[in-house]
Design a protein that fits this description.
- The protein is α+β, with helices and mostly antiparallel strands.
- The protein has one domain (about 1-85): Alpha-Beta Plaits (2-Layer Sandwich), CATH 3.30.70.
- The chain has helices spanning about 15-20, 25-30, 55-65, 65-75; strands at about 1-10, 30-40, 45-55, 75-85.
- It has a four-stranded antiparallel β-sheet with strand order 2-3-1-4.
- Helix 1 runs antiparallel to helix 4.
- The relative contact order is 0.32.
Amino acid sequence: MAALIVKHRVANFEAWKTQFDSMKPIRAKHGWISTHVFRDATDPNVVTIVNRVRDLAGAKAYGASPELREGMSKAGVQGPPEISFVEDAADDAY
């Protein structure tokens, strides 16, 4: 498996989350397995999302999609996001 990690600032977390949640079918179409949303401990409008995906090709297609660009605009994303594409190296649960 792989992950797409995204970090960005939003104008308003609650408005962003509503838009983010509305895009679940689009993410599923691109092979999403799960998402984990984190808020910065000192600035709650800085959001980090860890998206578990079936493969990097689907994640990259989603990242380039017009639906994502439109959704980010509607959600109040401020500035370009920090994006990382990563693949599993180890998974230990405690």
